[in-house]
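Quick entry, no commentary yet.
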Amino acid sequence: MNNTDDIAEKIISEIEKTEKRIAEYKELTKPTAPDCAIGRVSRMDAINNNSINLAALRKSEDKLKGLKYMLSKINDDDFGLCERCKQPIPIQRLLFMPQSQFCVYCSR
């Protein structure tokens, strides 16, 4: 199996995990009904938790978009090259963060 196959497998696996995580975050971010009998402090805590889960949801949706983009480019000649400097992205980075479109230096 070559590096591209390994990366494609990793991307598909990450897409599945991320889609599952998005579904969980969507469930967690459903609004609490105002008639739900919880105290003022508990309601404030629920609002705070909701904003944290919304941020995690947005981050996961961005990651999913990046993963799908990289999967669509997997067979392109320039796959694995940084989109900014055009230098190769190390295979370890692509396996660790398969949605990476930039090398470490350009991602800063």
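second:
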Amino acid sequence: MTLLKYWFIVAVLAGYAGMAQGQQTTPWNNKQCAVVLTYDDAIDVDIDNVLPALDSLNFKGTFYIIGSSPVVAKRISSWRKAAAHGHELGNHSLFHPCDGSLPGRGFVTAENDLSKYTVARAVNEIRANNTLLQAIDGKTNRTFAYPCGDLQVGGQYFYNQLKNDFAGARGVIPGFESVNDTNLDNIKCFMINGQSAQYMIGLVKQAMQSHTLLVFLFHGVGGGHNINVGLKEHSSLLHYLKKNESTIWVAPMVDVAQYIRKNQPAAVKK
């Protein structure tokens, strides 16, 4: 082998190595990380505060809708408009049942106590909410969010019967996940309640460094819920994401879940 051929082969191999390294550092739709902005419970501030903020920066979020929320009934046209603008209307169940038998669950009413449900009732109510959401947005593909993060009814994982109904399900356990490590039956997230913009931006920086998925879970934004984040803090987060959108993929949960499902190795998929 001549010296010229030797260096040519070395250069080619180096190029392949560089390509592989680039693929490893931009695994999220050719970005370094993915960030999903989720908002729970279908409350007025979603429409009054959040949607204008997202739309002003051309970001799309996921709004997990409780079908029985009065804000759904009185503001259907606003939810329909949000969906038409590319936001996801996710399923947060029809009545938001939580397990009242767990510690600290004094807020759970007898009518919406998941510990008194059957699996069939839980599944049927969630599917009924899907029908309602389809009537609003015309879509059949969306994600689910567990009310209160509760996964079981009578020791059974009720979502096992719903896997074909959704692209994925968001839980409440905090953490960062890679494409390969994401459990689409219980996607991790960080619940925000009074934390600063600096804290939230710090999470984004960690996701960028580790090339992982970061899901934010918000309730109130500027009020409207006892779990809340300040308007200025939320705005600072959004503007940081906008400033770095060349390296951060900001998308609704359904888009990210579909991307994960498509790109996970077959051995990882459930």
